[in-house]
Amino acid sequence: MGKHQLGEFEEVVMLTVAILTEDAYGFAIIEEMEQRLNRKVSIGALQTVLRRLEKKGYLHSEMGEATKVRGGKRKRFFHLTSAGKNILQETKEQRLGLWNAVPEFVVKFSH
Questions:
Q1: If we measure between CA atoms, which residue out of 2, 41, 1, 4 comes closest to residue 16?
Q2: d(CA 69, CA 38)
């Protein structure tokens, strides 16, 4: 794997950005994560991770147009970069390699 590794929350955030494609902004990301994972996500934790992922070069953001619904405030939309797609693929392969290495009897008895 490259010089950076993804933490679990970073991976979940990036996967959620990928799921939302063009609609990946703060509130939508939180809503999607909470719905899919059945767990609460704080806006502060999300913003911290989004900034860190941008700094690592895995995400890119841009400001959307101002809307009346938001009182003229603009949304910041996030997109995966090529490096982001690559690190997600590497992480997936690494996780699958671990799952595939678990002896079958361990998985069968855990249910």
A1: 41
A2: 27
